[in-house]
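A reminder from the course coordinator: this example appears on the midterm review sheet, so study it carefully.

Given structure:
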């Protein structure tokens, strides 16, 4: 149900603090002065929508201008949607729907980024707006000291911990080099580095934790914090790893070996790992890498004809997709997607008979190559109308790596 008395519009810079306070309240939190500064620094007022009930700001959502690496190693501008919230007492009046409409219809009308992406707070929220669950992430816990295969080379370089100010520029350089190879990774700005790794009040509430620690190798890094703990048999601390990034297999092994050998730590837990994180293959006993799966990126194609050619495909394809898209109706209809041996796609409207039928939600889920068309068809979410089309499409949409986004934005 939508309440026609609500007004949705973009903000000016002076309104950002009110917006941050309102969204934090929606998340049952209150911004400190420091959090207000880091959040305000990343928000773009002209891409931040708020919903007003009279003079009162009661909801909103924001778009961050980012590049995301698409299959084929192609960093591409996307609308990274964040800070969606509606004040308690004003929910289920259509405020969020109004923000979603302003964002997605606005991107279409302005010919801006044809791809929107977000992390959802709850799995039931975003399908109705045409977002599909496009990537998963793992929480991996490994006991300290777990052995690698004898054949694993950790190289000669010393792995060091550096202070934040020295480490961040080196880390930024490594992140830039690797991010262009990893589907789903987003570009970062100085303000977003500050936000992701700030010693915020929320982080300080984790009892007994150390500040972030920065582990550097010439070709890789890790960022973690530790929570020391003492048990009857000795130290049982946990190192919580935010990211492990390496541009060579040797650096990857060296950084993980460092993490698994930190004194006084009993368990290393990597909370936002990709689902194809190689650590499990370094261990002689892969059962030691305990894994829990969570969703990560949700993707929404704003304009399918502009979005589909932006990625590369793994196999030749000539398929007609009958797409239904209630929330962005300009996408509804039949689209012919042709991929040649060069992995490049063309997309055009067609009157030809459809081979596959799906909604915008499934197309978003397929887009990064992390969700299989075969799996979606098995769940009755994609209909195969021409025998064989599903298998070919599934192969073409799959990627070299599983999509992944290390940070929750
Ligand atoms: C990218 C991000 O920032 S994710 C963060 C999302 N924000 C939060 O989780 C903060 C806490 N929650 C909130 O602020 C609000 O409840 C919101 C933003 C999730 C929803 O805002 P509302 O203004 O109440 O949503 P709105 O009234 O537009 O609801 C639209 C539809 O979504 C449904 N819906 C809303 N919230 C949820 C939910 N959590 N789970 C499932 N369905 C939901 C509504 O029932 C409604 O369905 P209908 O069209 O069939 O009637």
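Designed residues:
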């Amino acid at each position: 149900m939508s309440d026609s008395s609500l007004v949705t519009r973009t903000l000016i810079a002076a309104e950002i603090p009110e917006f941050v306070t309102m969204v934090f309240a929606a998340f049952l939190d209150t911004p400190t002065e420091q959090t207000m500064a880091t959040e305000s620094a990343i928000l773009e007022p002209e891409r931040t929508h708020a919903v007003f009930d009279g003079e009162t700001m009661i909801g909103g959502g924001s778009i961050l201008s980012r590049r995301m690496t698409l299959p084929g190693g192609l960093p591409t501008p996307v609308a990274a949607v964040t800070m969606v919230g509606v004040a308690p007492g004003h929910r289920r009046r259509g405020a969020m729907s109004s923000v979603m409409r302003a964002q997605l219809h606005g991107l279409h009308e302005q010919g801006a980024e044809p791809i929107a992406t977000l992390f959802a707070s709850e799995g039931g929220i975003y399908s109705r707006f045409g977002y599909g669950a496009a990537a998963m992430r793992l929480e991996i816990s490994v006991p300290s000291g777990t052995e690698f295969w004898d054949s694993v080379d950790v190289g000669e370089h010393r792995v060091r911990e550096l202070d934040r100010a020295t480490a961040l520029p080196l880390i930024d350089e490594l992140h830039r080099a690797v991010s262009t190879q990893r589907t789903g990774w987003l570009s970062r700005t100085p303000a977003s580095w500050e936000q992701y790794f700030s010693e915020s009040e929320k982080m300080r509430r984790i009892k007994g934790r150390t500040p972030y620690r920065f582990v550097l190798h010439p070709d890789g890094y890790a960022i973690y914090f530790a929570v020391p703990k003492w048990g009857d048999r000795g130290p049982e601390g946990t190192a919580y790893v935010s990211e492990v990034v390496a541009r060579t297999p040797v650096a990857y092994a060296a950084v993980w070996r460092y993490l698994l050998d930190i004194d006084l730590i009993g368990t290393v837990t990597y909370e936002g790992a990709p689902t194809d994180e190689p650590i499990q293959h370094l261990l002689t006993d892969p059962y030691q890498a305990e894994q829990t799966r969570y969703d990560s990126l949700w993707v929404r194609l704003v304009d399918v004809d502009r979005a589909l050619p932006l990625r590369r495909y793994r196999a030749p394809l000539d398929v007609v997709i009958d797409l239904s898209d209630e929330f962005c109706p300009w996408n509804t209809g039949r689209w012919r997607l042709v991929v040649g041996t060069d992995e490049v796609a063309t997309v055009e409207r067609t009157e030809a008979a459809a081979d596959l039928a799906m909604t915008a939600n499934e197309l978003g889920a397929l887009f990064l190559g992390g969700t299989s068309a075969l799996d979606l068809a098995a769940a009755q979410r994609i209909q195969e109308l021409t025998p064989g089309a599903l298998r070919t499409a599934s192969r073409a949409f799959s990627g070299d790596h599983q999509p992944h986004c290390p940070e929750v934005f």
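The first helix runs from residue 16 to 26. The two ends are 29 Å apart (CA to CA).
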